[in-house]
Amino acid sequence: MITPSHQIIYDWEYQDQQEECFVTIHFPPTFNPQVLKYVLSEDKTNLILSMDSPIPIVCGRLWGEVKEIKDVYTSDKYVLSITKQTPEEWPNIIKAVHPEFESLDPKSAYIQFQELVLEAPKDPQFQHYAIERLVASAQTGFLPALRTYGSMMLTVNGQQQNGFTSLKTAADTYGDPASAYQVGLILASTPEGFTNGISYLKFAGSKGFHAAYLTLGQIYSPFTEFEAQKDPALAAQYLQQAIAAGDEMPQAYNELSKLYAAGVGVEKDLKKAQELLAKGEQLEEHQNRRRYSKEHGETAPPPEKHEDRSYAGIGKIIAIGGGIAAFVAGFSYAIYKKFSRK
């Protein structure tokens, strides 16, 4: 599998300029770019770029014939420059499997998976090819593929264990915060995995996946149905971290407002509770309007008038938005139970 510090090398960048195209590889400070070697086939239509690893960095049949190829590197990146025999657009660097090595590099396989998925509705066979490419990429440890494969398999009956294992590998071996979040949520949804799950969620949050702080806040909040030892003060702490991260999560404002309204975990402050609730509603409305505009290509209509959510009574507040964590927890628990049966 790909060495953790080499993930950045395999996730190269591609740029096309009709007459030329470029593959840019960024590498860690301790990496020696002199180990990077490319081989162009005699007919100048197949390329492999590799190093001292059985997993090629770029490998496959190109979109056309190469006129000239050269490489150059600096202190932090390596650039492969290709001049085309015929000026034309190449949508990607690799079009198909390398005929000699009968393989693709991990990123090209993942790109082809993404393209084939779009064609799947036209022909079921495309779905088969898409999964084939995804599995090939994930088996090398290419992080985007590993993460995608894991998430997909969680939704397929009989494949939940494979999905969980892939996500756990992405989290444990490669330190992927998004995968750590999913692993943490699944584990935290069961009594036997709760403590370990919390550790994964905390790791995800510390690495920039700030939704983990919202989830931790919901887990410990006394106003959610998530089965856990409730800790209002800890819930407030995590919800405040979610808000401070600046990712505009309305649920964090809504949940924290309940704590202030009830005076649990924080000092009771109805004014603060109202301000938090209003901010959460404002963010939610803004996100809904932005989503509408994106989907319909037009400005969203004015929002409908809703029931006044002012904090006239604590009971009214507590009921607002309480089902989010319960749904997520239930979904994760159902997944876990499916693949943990003996």
From TrEMBL:
One of its GO terms (biological process) is ERAD pathway. Keywords: Membrane, Repeat, Transmembrane, Transmembrane helix. Residues 281-308 are annotated as: Disordered. Residues 294-308 have a biased composition (Basic and acidic residues). InterPro entries: HcpB-like, Sel1-like, TPR-like_helical_dom_sf. It comes from the Eukaryota. The chain crosses the membrane at residues 317-336. GO terms for cellular component: endoplasmic reticulum membrane. Belongs to the hcp beta-lactamase family. This is CS domain-containing protein. It comes from Trichomonas vaginalis (strain ATCC PRA-98 / G3).
